[in-house]
Amino acid sequence: NESLLRALPFGMDIVDEAGTVLYASERLREMTGESLERHSCWMAYRDNKEQCKDCPLKQGIRVGETTSLITSGVFGGRTFQVSHCGIMFQGREAMLEIFQDVTELKQAEDKLRTSEERLRQAVRVSQIGIFDHDHLTGQIYWSPEERALNGWTAEQAPTVEQFVALVHPEDRE
Question: Taking the mean position of all CA atoms in its chain, how far away is CA 52?
C-alpha cells in the first residue's frame, strides 16, 4: 500500500537480478526527481553511474537473506545505508532495497574522529599527562604520557581504588 510506504522515512525499491528497478516507492522517486522503473539501480542512484563494489546482487539473490552496506556518492553526494533482502516479487526472485540517508551521521563521525586525533596529537606533543575517571562505570584511563611521567607500565597504573587512596582525604569526595 503506497500510503503506508509514504509514511516511512526512507526510500525503497525492488530490483531484479540484473539490478533493474521493478518498483520504486514514492519517497525514493522524490529523492531522485525522476522515474526509476526499467533503469538499473546504479544508473538511477549513483553519481558515478557504477555498480557498488559490495553490491549483493553480484553474489546473486538469496530469498530471505538480508545484508546491509554503506555507500556514498548517491543522489548528489549523499551517503546511504542500503539494506537488501532477497524476496519473491511477482513470482520471481528479487531484491528489496531500503535506503536510509546517513550523510549527517557520517559527517559527524568524521568530525569526531578528526577531533579525537587532534586531541591525541596535542596531548602527545605537549608531554602532559591526563587521566579520566568515569564515575558511572568505575573505569579509569591513564594516557601513555601520564603513565610515562609516573614511570608506570600499563599494568602498573593504579586502579580507581589505588588512586583514591593517594588523594588527600578531604579531597576524595
Answer: 17
Q: What whole-number distance in Å separates Cα of residue 62 and Cα of residue 136?
A: 45
DSSP designation for 4: H
Whether 42 and 20 have beta carbons less than 8 Å apart is answered as: no
Three-state secondary structure string covering 82-134: EEEEEEEECCEEEEEEEEEECHHHHHHHHHHHHHHHHHHHHHHHHCCCCEEEC
Single pTM value for the model: 0.64
Which runs of E-coded beta strand occur in 126-171? 131-133, 140-142
Query: Under a CB-based contact definition with an 8 Å cutoff, are residues 70 and 80 in contact?
Result: yes
pLDDT digits (tens, 9 = 90+) for 110-140: 999 999 999 888 877 887 888 888 888 888 9
Other beta carbons less than 10 A from residue 2's beta carbon? 8
- State the Cα–Cα distance between residues 13 and 23, nearest whole angstrom: 5
Grid coordinates of 121: 596529537
